[in-house]
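Minutes, project check-in
Item: structure for the 293-residue chain
Input as provided by the requester:
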Amino acid sequence: MNQVAKHWKDYECIDAGSGEKLERWKDIILRRPDPQVIWPMEENSMWNSPHAHYHRSKSGGGSWEYKKKFKDSWTVSYGDLRFKVSPTGFKHTGLFPEQAANWDWMMDTIQGSGREDLRVLNLFAYTGGATMACASAGAAEVVHVDASKGMVNWAKENMMLSHLENHKIRFIVDDVLKFVAREKRRGRTYHAIIMDPPSYGRGPNGEIWKIEEQLYPLISACMEILDDDPLFFLVNSYTTGFPPTVLYNLLRTTVGKKHCNGAIAAGEIGLPITTGDSVLPCGIYGKWVRDNK
């Protein structure tokens, strides 16, 4: 089951081709590389006049070429949520707009549950898109964990922009595996767990993360802190070469094995491309959700 983030007003994937995508972030046009775009670029005058163009370096990394003046950061809206956007040195902007499809699903699931006691854990939480979605939907507590202090501070800005400062959100800078182990020792549990693991990463103290080696151990560890009456479990992945079936099987052998009162789904997640009426693939997801029966 594929999901497309089609309800944006402040974001638009205008076009994609020849390894790049052309995007509108409110009033700012950015041109960025995308390894999934292997089809050719079609003629479009907007390709030649973005506000900024990110160029990859042959030696690794890359840099922005600024063609028009604009602020270092600005705000985009998604419904009642507000997020700071800013071009970073590693091509990202602080927001993955395709995740809006998951935000919609999480908000609908939380609101539809009718539960007021929900504790949500967001691992590899980045700048907090899912954190803000769950808090705004009425989760009693959201715990936001990321190894980068800078990203956690950015998430705190998004909390203020979204006027969620009166909601119970805990921001934690930590290695996710170590945090989950400590939560087990404390006897804390969560009704919903979200994770968006990178292919490779480092924790705040140099801990090494390799998704192919540590994703299953992490999900297994999370089973120890998943409440006996859970609502959902969601895993995102941007790892090239991982089909959705990988996440389906991981959830089937962990959450699905222990909790038979739910359903598992997996698929691609993407963005609509305005020019050409097609979809830009942006990663995969797998989710377990409790049956409403």
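Outcome recorded: DSSP finds seven helices and 17 strands in the chain.
No further action items on this chain.
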